[in-house]
Design brief:
With about 190 residues, this protein is an alpha/beta fold. The protein has a single domain, classed as 3-Layer(aba) Sandwich (Rossmann fold), CATH 3.40.50.1240. The protein is about 30% helix and about 25% strand. The strands form 2 sheets. A 6-stranded mixed sheet has the order 5-4-6-3-7-8, with helices on both faces. Strands 1-2 form a two-stranded antiparallel sheet. Strand 4, helix 2 and strand 5 form a beta-alpha-beta unit. Helix 4 packs across helix 5. The longest helix has 16 residues.
């Protein structure tokens, strides 16, 4: 069994500590993230870019994830411009070199479709980062919550899911087994730069 200690430094909502995470052979780490602040206009909704503040917020989220010792093995990112730019800022600030999967289906996916896409994560991936859109990301993060995790983090998450919000969850099993109320919320954070 590998143990990864996760310590939350300042800047999170009410979840200012995360217990050490025990990673057995079946344990997985999931990060559900809403894209950062985007321009209100674009050639199409799919092509809207991040604002300057959005880029700064996404970079702050990336630094926060790195400070927690979180490095995804697999990243599933909506193909929209704003989610791709969120990924770029998060990845650069965190110091990751992972190539994400940009998925057209995640752009318009509802919770069931997004969950199906997450279940297709590679078996060998121990940690998965998903960057998508509201209301799907917020709804799915709340529905995955088994209620056994950090109550303050769960309450913060249920209180609103602003741009650049992310939920960290743990899950025991394989990705195809991920289902409603099957993951434990360990942290909720809103990146602000």
């Amino acid at each position: 069994m590998v143990q990864i200690s996760v310590t939350v430094l300042g800047g999170c909502c009410h979840s200012c500590h995360v217990a050490p995470l025990d990673f057995s052979q079946d344990a997985r780490l999931l990060v559900m993230m809403r894209h950062a602040k985007a321009e209100s206009w674009g050639d199409s909704d799919h092509e809207r870019h991040l604002t300057e503040q959005g880029r700064a917020d996404a970079a702050a989220a990336g630094r926060w994830l790195a400070e927690q010792g979180i490095t995804p093995d697999h990243a599933l990112v909506s193909s929209a411009t704003r989610t791709q730019e969120t990924w770029d800022a998060v990845c650069t600030a965190a110091g990751w070199s992972l190539a994400p999967v940009f998925d057209d289906g995640l752009y318009s996916a509802g919770p069931d479709t997004a969950l199906d896409l997450m279940r297709e994560a590679p078996t060998e991936a121990r940690s998965l980062l998903v960057i998508g859109h509201n209301p799907t990301v917020a709804y799915l993060a709340q529905m995955l919550d088994d209620g056994e995790g950090d109550p303050a983090a769960s309450a913060d998450m249920a209180g609103g899911y602003p741009t650049c919000a992310l939920t960290v969850l743990t899950f025991t099993g394989s990705w195809p087994d991920l289902d409603m109320a099957s993951a434990t919320v360990t942290a909720f954070h809103v990146g602000r730069g």
